[in-house]
Amino acid sequence: MSLQELDLKTEHRNVKLETGLSENGRAGIVEHLNEILADHYLLMLKTHNYHWNVKGPLFKSMHDLTEAQYEDLFAAIDEIAERIRALGFDAPGSFKTYSQISKIEEAKSGISALEMAADLLSSHENLIRNMRDALAKADQESDEVTVDLMTERLSVHEKAAWMWRSFIEQ
Ligand SMILES: [Fe+2]
Q1: Distance 153 CA to ligand 1 centre (A)
Q2: Which domains occur in the chain, in start order?
Q3: Residues 6 or more apart from 99 whose CB is under 8 A from it?
Q4: pLDDT digit string, tens, across residues 22-78
Q5: Which residues contact 67 (CB under 8 A, 6 or more apart)?
Q6: Which of 8, 91, 111, 122 is close enough to 115 for a disulfide, judged by CB 3.0 to 4.6 Å?
């Protein structure tokens, strides 16, 4: 039997969400979280790309640092997507959507280790600014769980930004 022949329609059940956050408030927070999820995914891919393709004397340190970071990003993606679900919305999960809603530019090819570090620094800083906006919105709506999540992620990315800045500075 082909997929088309199967009747996959099931009855839709909408269970009202009554956690004390308004629907409008939740929708506004999720708009920010969608962008942050997309930023995380695209930054994870770029970090992985540079992990594979870095060359030269900085290879070992760059290869190791990018590995720690893409592993952290992978875990965070799941947490952010599940927060979106807990707020009552579907989480976006396709590259097409991610590239439409995120401003993180894709990895460049043929660049030096220092240029990769500068590119990663700029992406982390971009993400940090977006997370500050998300945190402010969550705070305005008294969504402490999202405030907590954003605070935790901000500390990780500010640390990553510091590391990439130090990688470049002399
Ligand atoms: Fe690896």
Answers
A1: 23
A2: 23-101+112-168 (1.20.1260.10)
A3: 38, 42, 106
A4: 999 999 999 999 999 999 999 999 999 999 999 999 999 999 999 999 999 999 999
A5: 51
A6: 111
